[in-house]
Amino acid sequence: MAGLKTVDDLATSLDGLEGKRVLVRSDLNVPLQGSVITDDGRIRASGPTISDLTRRGAKVIVMAHLGRPAGEPDPSYSLAPVAARLGELLGRDVRHATDTVGAAARAAVGAMDGGDVVVLENVRFSPAETSKVDSERGAFAAELATFGDGFVSDGFGVLHRKQASVYDVARLLPGAAGGLVLREVEVLRRLTEAPERPYVVVLGGSKVSDKLGVIDSLIRTADTLLIGGAMAFTFLKALGHEVGKSLLEEDKVGVVRGYLDQAAQAGVRIVLPTDVVVAPELTADAPPMTVQADAMPPDQLGLDIGPESARQFSQVLSEARTAFWNGPMGVFERAAFAAGTQVVARALTEMDGWSVVGGGDSAAAVRTLGFRDDQFGHVSTGGGASLEYLEGKTLPGIAALERS
Ligand code: ADP
Ligand code: MG
């Protein structure tokens, strides 16, 4: 990948940032319960680029999305609480515009002085943000671009999206990659280009079909794959085991069988759980039990890797020089099914090598289970973006910056 332009380069091309309007795409998509932010990791991670720009005297206009509103204004997805939290973290006043490109946004941006910060309302309140039609996205991006003299792309978690505020705006304004994007890309480059070996990858979570693609390329780069979470059941099924009522991607069983053959030929070890924590229902009060992975009862579903599997996974991780982890090992949101994720997270903090955690839920899981970010080599703000990079795909948000 060509070198990305930095904020320093942007400052040079704009003849200094003092008083200039800089439109920043950040990833502020945090989990909310009502209007309470349950994990502010992405807001914290976005802070340094914004405060760097304010220190340089820029007017900083932040674009971001929250959740998946239906392409129209919806108060439950307002960025107002996020703007407030950003203000607390930056220790300064952060204004929230109550629309994205309308009268409120224009007034807020028009009233800015150098060093001010405005957060525009959720870009996904417009259907054009995520439209598949280039001209629709382009028209929305053109409205956004009227707010900026330059653009800084710092929303790492959305770089794999060809969306107006990520991709199209980058083509309309002089652009640069923010510090967060540069740091994340550097980590991914280190993982793909020269990982110290053994390189162990742990995959889990529930977005199985999204994540299967990466296995193809991991078979070429990693030494060992540890598979937990819901993904494990498609693998167990491919080996001919019954998986009861567990989450299963029936139509992917053939693909997975292919991966198992490919890995065997390449000498890459794929380690599956040998035991599973099951329950009759996720909601049931019935006590969970541990069963062998090749003898899952038909009326139960697997909700965590078992203790024997967790021990084996952490044993493999203790010998790794590089580890990448995406996707919880079980339904960690419930204490009864959090042990596998907890054991794997601890193994990553204890290994001598370099550990990277990626994925929205994975990052939230390590924090809610009581680990600190600095116990890992790197905690990424992006899941899908990291995986697509590791798959060798070109991320639209990066491609657009390279051309700007
Ligand atoms: P990430 O955001 O880290 O990429 P995913 O979004 O793919 O991860 O998956 C996270 C979710 O996977 C969690 O909410 C967790 O409860 C769920 N999960 C993990 N294991 C299982 C399982 N065995 N069955 C159902 N859901 C699971
Ligand atoms: Mg997720």
Give your account of this protein's structure:
With 404 residues, the chain is α/β, with parallel strands linked by helices. It has helices spanning 7-13, 41-55, 80-90, 103-110, 134-145, 164-168, 179-193, 208-221, 231-238, 253-266, 307-318, 339-350, 360-368, 384-390, 396-403; strands at residues 21-25, 32-33, 36-37, 59-63, 94-96, 117-119, 150-153, 175-177, 199-203, 224-227, 269-271, 275-279, 289-292, 301-305, 322-326, 354-358, 378-379. The longest helix is centred in the N-terminal third of the chain and has 15 residues, at 41-55. The radius of gyration is 22 Å and the shape is elongated. The mean pLDDT is 95.
What attributes does this structure have?
binds adenosine-5'-diphosphate; six-stranded parallel β-sheet; alpha/beta; single chain; 404 residues; binds magnesium ion
| Overall spatial form | elongated
Radius of gyration: 22 Å
Query: Regions with pLDDT < 50 over 5+ consecutive residues?
Result: none
Cofactors and ligands present? Answer: adenosine-5'-diphosphate, magnesium ion
Distance between termini? 14 Å
Number of helices: 15
> Taking strands numbered 1, 2, ... along the chain, how are they ordered across the largest sheet?
5-6-4-1-7-8
Structural class: alpha/beta
β-strand number: 17
Strand residues, percent: 15-25%
User: Into which percent range does the helicity of residues fall?
Assistant: 25-40%
The biggest beta sheet is recorded as: 6 strands, parallel
How confident overall, as mean pLDDT? 95
SSE inventory with pairings:
Blueprint: H1 7-13, E1 21-25, E2 32-33, E3 36-37, H2 41-55, E4 59-63, H3 80-90, E5 94-96, H4 103-110, E6 117-119, H5 134-145, E7 150-153, H6 164-168, E8 175-177, H7 179-193, E9 199-203, H8 208-221, E10 224-227, H9 231-238, H10 253-266, E11 269-271, E12 275-279, E13 289-292, E14 301-305, H11 307-318, E15 322-326, H12 339-350, E16 354-358, H13 360-368, E17 378-379, H14 384-390, H15 396-403
Parallel strand pairs: 1-4, 1-7, 4-6, 5-6, 7-8, 9-10, 9-15, 10-11, 15-16, 16-17
Antiparallel strand pairs: 2-3, 12-13, 12-14
The structure holds adenosine-5'-diphosphate (ADP) and magnesium ion.
Magnesium ion binds at residues 360-361, 383.
